[in-house]
Every structure is written in C-alpha cells, then in structure tokens.
Specification:
about 260 residues; alpha+beta; five-stranded antiparallel beta sheet; four-stranded antiparallel beta sheet; elongated
Length: about 260
C-alpha cells in the first residue's frame, strides 16, 4: 500500500505543482499515523465550549465545595495531608465549567436545586485516643505543647487545635478546610502511644458533588438527596457531566429515584 502512495507522489512531482504534492503527502501521513484521530470527541452531542476563567462570584459560590472536590482529586494521586493550591485550582475549574455550561441538566443541578456538597460546611474533626501512661499524653490533656515533637510539629504545620473531651475520653482535633482528614488521621496513627485516630463521622446525609478523573477528562456527578436526609436520604437523583481540559463540558446522563415534588 505504501509503495503505491510513493509512486503517486513521484508522478505528482513530475506532472503537478508543489501544492498537489503537499496534499498527497498530508493524506498519506493521515493514512499511516496510528495516533491520528479523525474527529474531536468534544464536538459531539450536548457539548459546551466555555472559557476557563473563573468569575469572582463563582469562586465565592463554591468556596466550600472546592475543598470537597480537591480532596477527592488529591486522594486519587497522593497521601499528602495538605490540599495544595494546584488541586484547589483544578477543583474550581471543574466546578466553574459545569456552572458555565448551557444544558438544561445544568439548570436543574446548579440553579433549581442549587447543589452543594452537604459535607462542605461540616466541621472537620478527628477523634484520637492515646495511652495516658505517656507523659506527652498527660501534657496534651492540659494543653499544648505536648512535648512530643511529632505531635507538636503536626499541630504547628497544619494549624490544628486539640482539646480533651472527658465524656468521650478522647482528644478532639480540629483542622482547617485545606486538610485531608483521613490522611491526617494516618499521621497520628503512626505515633507511638496513639491507640487510634479516626475521622469524626458527619451526621445525616444530603447533596453530593463527586468527581471521577479519567485520562483526558473528568466526570462530575451532582447528586440531589431527598426524603428524611437527617437519617440518610431515601431518594437520590444524579446528573453526570464530563469536563475536558479546555473546559468544554458534555452532559452525559441522569439517573436515580425520581424527585418528589
């Protein structure tokens, strides 16, 4: 097959001008290039091409959700405790892309039901129990510093506050929004004398925003929970959007329990 194209190119050189040659060579490259993509998948069905710039009002609207989404992004790649600025920026880019899209599904998720992750404004705490025969544990019950260099370094590095809860016989560790609770818990679990450190459960249930990063795009699911969510939502309806690196969005599907009106 290739010999045939080379023959055609040779004849073109003899009989045609240079533009003819360039056209045939271009077509030949497309024919044999295994990486050639004949169409851009972002141009099909229900797509929006938008700017990636984030307006101040959008940044404010999702100021809490950013950390929920950024935590999910970080946990797919790293066990770092601190949510870096790059993860926060990517989370905001994804949220902004869906917010700026034009599909009717976006209007339902973003406007009609105004979905934010219900955990976004919850207090982020750890419960930690430790062997009270350790001097540093006794010190910590009376306040900081504890005298344990690892504990005190974690407190100072991540702007933590710790107090002892007598009723539960545990230390309550409060942390800022830019911390991954599960990763911080692991840091404390590695300290000699700590019996356990675990994330304080968040009561009830509600709306969710979840991300599923894939090669070349990220899927975002906006989930509306309803029906006695304090005890755990009875019903849930989901909208799924796909966001590409250039902030093009594609509405994929909706599914779940029909929303009670």
């Amino acid at each position: 097959m290739q010999h045939f194209y080379y023959l055609i190119v040779f004849i073109c050189i003899v009989l045609c001008n240079s533009s003819c040659t360039e056209t045939l060579i271009h077509n030949f490259d497309v024919e044999v290039n295994d990486n050639y993509i004949g169409f851009d998948p972002k141009t099909i069905n229900n797509n929006d091409a938008i700017e990636c710039d984030v307006a101040n009002d959008v940044a404010t609207l999702y100021s809490n959700d950013v950390f929920v989404v950024a935590t999910q992004l970080l946990q797919t790649e790293s066990n770092e405790v601190l949510i870096g600025e790059s993860y926060q920026n990517e989370a905001l880019r994804l949220l902004n892309a869906v917010y700026q899209s034009n599909s009717p599904a976006r209007d339902s998720a973003v406007v009609q039901f105004s979905i934010h992750d219900y955990t976004a404004t919850a207090t982020k705490n750890l419960f930690m129990a430790a062997d009270e025969s350790n001097v540093w544990v006794q010190n910590l019950k009376n306040g900081l510093p504890s005298g344990n260099p690892i504990v005190d370094n974690l407190v100072n590095s991540f702007d933590l506050s710790i107090h002892y809860e007598n009723f539960l016989s545990v230390f309550v560790i409060e942390m800022p929004s830019n911390i991954v609770p599960a990763h911080l818990a692991q840091e404390f679990n590695n300290i000699s004398g700590v019996s356990y450190a675990e994330v304080q459960p968040i009561e009830g249930d509600g709306n969710h925003i979840t991300v599923t990063p894939q090669f070349g795009y990220t899927d975002m699911t906006y989930s509306y929970g309803f029906g006695d969510c304090f005890a755990g939502c009875i019903g849930r309806w989901n909208w799924v959007f796909r966001v590409y690196p250039d902030c093009t969005t594609e509405y994929l599907s909706s599914y779940g329990t029909p929303i009670e009106q």
